[in-house]
Amino acid sequence: MEVSTVIRTDNVRQGIGCMLLAVSVFSLLNVLVKTLTSAGYPVAEVAFFRNLCAMPVVMAMISLGGDWRQIRTRHLGGHLWRSTIGLTCMLLMFLAFDLLPLADAVAFSFAAPLFVTALSVPLLGEKVGIHRWGAVMVGLVGVLVMLRPGGAMLNPGVIAALASALCQALAMIAIRQLSRTEAPLATVFYFTLFSTILCICLLPFGWRTPVGWDWALVAGLGVVGGIAQYFVTRAHALAPAALIAPFNYMALLWAALFGFILWGEVPDHLTLAGAAIVMASGLYIIYRESRRRLPVSAGCPATRGGVATPMPETVGETGPR
Hints:
- The two termini are 25 Å apart.
- This protein has 14 helices and no strands.
- The protein is mainly alpha-helical.
């Protein structure tokens, strides 16, 4: 698929609207994940239902596009690697949702673009200038602020969230490579397919049969994730990535709101201050990337636990949701 067929029907207002809807719906997915994991359902099982129930939605998206040739690929191994690292990212983020307040987990996930910038040098051979390196350093200061002086907040939940952000960065880089030859919906399709299969392999290590209304929750994982995925893909088709990516940070506001209403969680001043620093550095990286690559191209981003991470040149999945 030519890149131009993805971005040439620009409608910035509708693109921003679709991204805001996607972030809102993905935030609802985060709530479903935290509800299920807090109720004792294993993380791998929750990820299994999230991917299995998303498959019909993904297939509907391809059917609506009217061309199943989009999923043809000559890089099945690349899709398998991207799915493996993306699923690892998803599992770690779901674990972080279980162990941390929702807003804290989301805030730490914003470190992913910092890791992308750093890893693009050894893995993609890209040249990163002093401006973007400076943004990465500032972003890492923000992470340290959230960790508290002396790393007082360093615990299994935080480690899982930061490891998820690192895996998300690796998945984004894999997607950047795949997007050179693969259609965006092909990346989404193979991620959903392979992640479902990989999750099946994990189910013998932990399974709890859903009961009652829990069946509606596990089914909602895939449906909600699939709907959000559609709006993400549509948003990147309607507007340049650099314009709509900053709206991903609305996820923190939704996380704080849901966390307070449902679990009485209140982010403290250090979490909010650190998140603000990380977001500012991420926005600057987006700005520098958009200036370095004009026009901004659209590929297909990674999946993360539930947060739509700003990533120039990416479209499709955002985070391991």
